[in-house]
Amino acid sequence: MPQTAWSNKRERQYEHIKSGAIKRGTNEKRAEEIAARTVNKERAQHGEARKSTKSLAEDMSPSRRGGLRSHKGSGGRTYQQLYAEASFRNIKGRSSMNKAELEKVLGRH
Question: Would you call 86 exposed, middle or buried from its count of C-beta atoms within 10 A (0-12, 13-18, 19+)?
Answer without folding.
Answer: buried
